[in-house]
Amino acid sequence: MGEVTNRLAVDLCGIALDNPVIPASGTFGYGREFAEVYDINILGTFSFKGTTKDPRLGNLTPRIAETPCGMLNAVGLQNPGVDKVIEEELPNLAKIFHKPVMANVSGFSVDDYVYTCEKLDQQPQVGWLEVNISCPNVHGGGMSFGTDPAAAAEVTRAVKAVTAKPVIVKLSPNVTDIVSIAKACEDAGADGISLINTLLGMRIDLKTRRPILANTTGGLSGPAVFPVALRMVYQVAHAVSVPVVGMGGVTTAEDVLEMMMAGAAAVEVGAANLVDPFACKKIIEDLPAAMDKYGISTLSELKG
Amino acid sequence: MKQGIYTIKENKRIADGIWKMVLAGDGTAVTAPGQFINIKLDGRFLRRPISVHDADDTSITIIYKVLGRGTEDMTSYAPGKELDVLAGLGNGFDPTASEKPLLIGGGVGIPPLYLLAKKLIAAGRSVQVVLGFNAKEDAFCIGEFEALGCKVSVASLDGSLGVKGFVTDALPSPDTYDCFYTCGPLPMLRALDGAIPAGIPGQLSFEERMGCGFGACMGCTVPVKGGYKRICKDGPVLAREEIVWEK
Ligand SMILES: Cc1cc2nc3c(=O)[nH]c(=O)nc-3n(C[C@H](O)[C@H](O)[C@H](O)COP(=O)(O)OP(=O)(O)OC[C@H]3O[C@@H](n4cnc5c(N)ncnc54)[C@H](O)[C@@H]3O)c2cc1C
Ligand SMILES: Cc1cc2nc3c(=O)[nH]c(=O)nc-3n(C[C@H](O)[C@H](O)[C@H](O)COP(=O)(O)O)c2cc1C
Ligand code: FES
Fold first, then answer.
1. A135 is catalytic
2. CATH code given to domain B95-242
3. Which of A270, B108, B138, B166 could form a disulfide with B16 if both were Cys (CB 3.0 to 4.6 A apart)?
């Protein structure tokens, strides 16, 4: 581009992003609903809906509950399964999005993760694999992969063995010591760490005296979790040397700057997209003025 | 889907716990009867989905029931206030599916049937309508349907208005309609499916708690025959034959 430098450009695991704004998995589907209202190619990239080996219908409804400054969801990883994603969703996506996409992967056993990652590794559209380790490990007695450093490392190692693409391990915040999990993933070969996934919560309907969510509990996200997420991003970014993707409650350009000041190389935006379909577009448009206000010439200078 | 800023033109109580709000703004965002809008309220994180009762080029009318805090807040909104609205959401009813339509509404399931009735009447159909309420005090819209030229029957649970009982107690003879369109509480939809002869097609509008309201979050998905559907995007109107009733 010669003299013209893009002030918003950042690098994520060796892949250049036009800006650090990335819609978070589960809040952007496969991009289609948003492409109807704006050109999603303005995004850094986006992380598509959590994909598993087999199709999943997900939980019964109600799956959503409102909270002060946020929401609970218990979608239960509804997705058509990796084969259908490759057959149908990726070709559809190719028509509307022309940048590398982040493939979000979930599983209930190490073999599940390996199967799904191996398939997505063959897809040229996929830039990064974001491996969500917050689901229960059905073979390990239902305990989440993401709450045990050894299990987190095992998934990371197994996935790294079957893909040449950068592997970003997505951590659950529902742990006592997030740094030990992050370090275990880094030691096992993770190319990056993303955090946070949702915080476990619940609501009760005062009229029926029963939980609002059919699943009883669900994951809290939205502005309510921002300070918790920022703290965890800060702790992890200072403990590992791989890039960290920060998320949790990000709603404005200022939130993006704050996440990057905490050490994030890029920033995902989740629940905000659901309330305002133009949230990421607005954040990207607002970033230059916010940077001017705080004397930031380029975003890449913030990192670290 | 279109996002727009709409200005409240009118917001008034029309029955016990029932309010009508007229929003000035782009009404062309509404592309079918039975669609809904999703309204951002001050101090509430999620939007509130409310059916379109009526729409023209420059306005959208909704009718809402005071249920929880959000709808309670809405009653205090004065004309002139601006609201951030996502409009044109959902598939809506298909008015072309019937020669002799029957419309059945219960409580705040009635509003989306009004724009449908308008379209059907405009297309020259003779329209039968059955409306169900708890009591006379919470009844609304009866005159509006009559003014369109619909043949209206009413049922109320306490018998204070029309037939005493449920909408199923006020249904016309099955040979007088070839398709039914309905919106209302789930038990009512289920009862209608039981009461109306199996051969008659129906379009039924459902409610679910929503995250986004435009198809992105999978928060509102229900199983249907042969797969699943997002109530906000693939619905809220489902065809009778695809509905899976047991949950
Ligand atoms: C497609 C659709 C069309 C609708 N049309 C109408 C209408 O025309 N008129 C009308 O009065 N109501 C309608 N509703 C129901 C209306 O959305 C709820 O009554 C309203 O959201 C309650 O908000 P609240 O803040 O008062 O209640 P609260 O209980 O405080 O709300 C808390 C959260 O739960 C959600 N919620 C609570 N009840 C419902 C419900 N029954 N359905 C969906 N979400 C709910 C709210 O949106 C909010 O996110 C419709 C719902 C859907 C899904
Ligand atoms: C409706 C919904 C669905 C989600 N689905 C997934 C998913 O499939 N995979 C995943 O890794 N994270 C999922 N998440 C978590 C988000 O990607 C993100 O980590 C979290 O919501 C925190 O960000 P936020 O506060 O900006 O929403 C989901 C979140 C929401 C609200
Ligand atoms: S409410 Fe988000 S997909 Fe229906």
1. yes
2. 3.40.50.80
3. B138
